[in-house]
Amino acid sequence: RYKRPDAPAESPGDTVIQAQLRSSECCNKLLQKVPWTRQQLLSDLKEFVHNIYPHRPIRMNTFGMRLSHAFGCWFITKTLQPKYILES
Description:
Structural class: mainly alpha
């Protein structure tokens, strides 16, 4: 497997996390129907636009997350409550 020269060394926990990500439990969740309704999505969008997004710490994030991406990340995290979030 290719490793970037500047990548940090793997910790013992990395192996455990990688195994859990490859497990059938994780993959089965990806194949299920979405666990939210259109009404829940619209309701949470309203909550996000009025109560969450205006209080973001970085006001002008030109090359970062904007409203739609920030909402998607917030909504999926709030709804699915994943055990791990991998940021690249």
